[in-house]
C-alpha cells in the first residue's frame, strides 16, 4: 500500500532521513494497514501489499455480452481540516470511498477495485493506518477491492501533521444496462435518497461560517447536538451496495432510468446532469426537512437554507429517476436497504413553465442536460 522506495546516497553525508523522509515509519504504516486491506480482497486480486502495481483478474467479464469499464477519481476536500483539528481520522476513509465509488454506480456499474493516494508532511504510521482502515471498511461495504495505493511524505511542502487523500476506482457495466439521461421519459418520478449529513462537500463554507462566529471544532454545542467537529465529521453515506443490489433485482429490471450523486454543485445542478435536454423538474422542498446541522449552520451564518442549495446536499445524497409505475416498488426496495427514500418531483417534457422569480438551472459541469428548480418551502 505504501511504497517506500529510497535511493541510497552513497558516501554523501546527507540522507533521506535528514531531508525529513522517514522510510522506516512508512514500512511500519504498511504493516499496520495490511490486514485491513487484505479483508477487501477476494480471489480476483493477485499479488500482495506493497507491489508497484495491483493486479485484478477480470475473467468474470467474459460472461458480459458487451462489458464497459467505468472509472472515477476524487478526494475529500477541506473536511480533512476538521479531522486534523480533532486528531480523529477513522471516518475520512469512508468519505473518500463515498466520493469515488458512489460516482461509479451512477451509470449502473458495479465497482471492481480502488486505489488510494495519501500525501502527508510526516508519516505517522498509526494515523496513516487509521485512514486506510477506514478506506478498507468502506471498500468492503461497497464490494470494492482495495488493490493498492501510495503514501507520499512531503516535508517542507506540507506541515508535519497535514495530509490529503485521493482515490480512483474502476467498475463494470453491460453496455445495454448503462443508466443515463437517454433513458428518462416524460412522467418519470424523481426519488430522493436521504443523506447522512453534509457528506464531503461545502466544507470551505462550513469552516468560513464557524471561523466568522468564533467557534472551534472542539466546542460542545447544544444546537449541534454535541462536539461541533464530531458532528461535522459524520461520514458520507455509502449508496453503492444498496443500489447495486436494487439494480440487480429482476422484478425491477429497467425501472431505474438514471441516478445522480449529489456532491459539489448542490441539488438542482446534479439532478439536471442526468435529465435529457428539453425536460424539466420542479423539486418540492416541502417533501423533506433538512437535518439540524444544515439549519444550525444557516442560522449562524444569518442566511437561508435556500441560499445553500448550490453548495450543500441539504439532506438529499442521491436521486433516482424511475418509471412512474415502478416508483413505489423502487422506493420500497431502497428503503429495505436502510435508506429513507421519497418522491420529490416528476419529469416533464412539455414547454418549460414561466420561471417567474425562480429560475431553472439547466445542465452543469459541461453537460447540456435538463432544467431543474426547487419550489415551495422546506418542511419544519
Automatic annotation (TrEMBL):
This is Phosphoribosylformylglycinamidine cyclo-ligase. SUPFAM superfamilies: PurM C-terminal domain-like, PurM N-terminal domain-like. It is found in: Cytoplasm. Pathway: Purine metabolism; IMP biosynthesis via de novo pathway; 5-amino-1-(5-phospho-D-ribosyl)imidazole from N(2)-formyl-N(1)-(5-phospho-D-ribosyl)glycinamide: step 2/2. It catalyses: 2-formamido-N(1)-(5-O-phospho-beta-D-ribosyl)acetamidine + ATP = 5-amino-1-(5-phospho-beta-D-ribosyl)imidazole + ADP + phosphate + H(+). HAMAP family: AIRS. Its main location: cytoplasm. Residues 186-348 form the PurM-like C-terminal domain. Its EC number is 6.3.3.1. Keywords: ATP-binding, Cytoplasm, Ligase, Nucleotide-binding, Purine biosynthesis. The lineage of its organism: Bacteria, Bacillati, Actinomycetota, Actinomycetes, Micrococcales. InterPro entries: PurM-like_C_dom (IPR010918), PurM-like_C_sf (IPR036676), PurM-like_N (IPR016188), PurM-like_N_sf (IPR036921), PurM_cligase (IPR004733). The keyword RNA-binding does not apply. Pfam families: AIRS, AIRS_C. It comes from Herbiconiux moechotypicola. Gene3D superfamilies: PurM-like C-terminal domain, PurM-like, N-terminal domain. Belongs to the AIR synthase family. The keyword Cytoplasm applies. Residues 69-173 form the PurM-like N-terminal domain.
Amino acid at each position: 500500500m505504501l511504497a517506500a522506495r529510497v535511493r541510497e546516497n552513497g558516501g554523501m553525508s546527507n540522507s533521506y532521513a535528514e531531508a525529513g523522509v522517514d522510510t522506516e515509519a512508512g514500512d511500519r504504516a504498511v504493516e499496520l494497514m495490511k490486514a485491513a486491506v487484505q479483508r477487501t480482497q477476494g480471489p480476483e486480486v493477485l499479488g500482495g501489499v506493497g507491489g508497484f502495481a495491483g493486479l485484478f483478474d477480470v475473467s468474470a467479464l467474459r460472461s458480459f455480452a458487451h462489458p464497459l469499464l467505468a472509472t472515477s477519481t476524487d478526494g475529500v476536500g477541506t473536511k480533512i481540516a476538521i479531522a486534523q483539528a480533532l486528531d480523529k481520522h477513522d471516518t475520512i476513509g469512508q468519505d473518500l470511498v463515498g466520493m469515488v465509488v458512489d460516482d461509479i454506480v451512477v451509470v449502473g456499474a458495479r465497482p471492481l477495485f480502488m486505489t488510494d493516494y495519501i500525501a502527508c508532511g510526516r508519516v505517522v504510521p498509526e494515523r496513516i493506518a487509521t485512514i486506510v482502515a477506514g478506506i478498507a471498511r468502506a471498500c468492503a461495504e461497497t464490494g470494492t477491492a482495495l488493490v493498492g495505493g501510495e503514501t507520499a511524505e512531503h516535508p517542507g511542502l506540507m506541515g508535519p501533521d497535514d495530509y490529503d487523500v485521493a482515490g480512483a476506482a474502476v467498475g463494470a457495466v453491460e453496455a445495454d444496462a448503462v443508466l443515463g439521461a437517454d433513458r428518462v421519459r416524460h412522467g418519470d418520478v424523481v426519488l430522493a435518497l436521504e443523506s447522512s449529513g453534509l457528506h464531503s462537500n461545502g466544507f470551505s463554507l462550513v469552516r468560513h461560517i464557524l471561523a466568522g462566529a468564533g467557534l472551534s471544532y472542539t466546542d460542545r454545542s447544544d444546537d449541534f447536538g454535541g462536539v461541533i467537529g464530531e458532528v461535522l465529521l459524520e461520514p458520507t453515506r455509502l449508496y453503492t451496495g444498496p443500489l447495486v443490489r436494487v439494480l440487480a433485482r429482476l422484478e425491477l429490471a429497467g425501472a431505474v432510468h438514471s441516478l445522480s450523486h449529489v456532491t459539489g454543485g448542490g441539488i438542482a445542478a446534479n439532478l439536471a446532469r442526468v435529465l435529457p435536454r428539453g425536460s424539466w423538474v420542479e423539486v418540492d422542498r416541502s417533501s423533506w426537512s433538512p437535518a439540524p446541522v444544515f439549519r444550525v449552520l444557516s442560522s449562524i451564518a444569518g442566511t437561508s437554507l435556500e441560499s445553500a442549495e448550490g453548495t450543500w446536499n441539504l439532506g438529499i445524497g442521491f436521486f433516482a429517476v424511475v418509471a412512474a409505475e415502478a416508483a413505489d416498488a423502487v422506493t420500497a426496495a431502497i428503503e429495505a436497504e436502510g435508506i429513507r427514500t421519497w418522491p420529490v418531483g416528476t419529469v416533464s417534457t412539455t414547454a418549460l413553465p414561466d420561471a417567474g422569480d425562480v429560475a431553472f438551472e439547466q445542465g452543469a459541469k459541461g453537460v447540456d442536460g435538463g432544467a431543474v428548480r426547487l419550489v415551495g418551502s422546506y418542511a419544519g
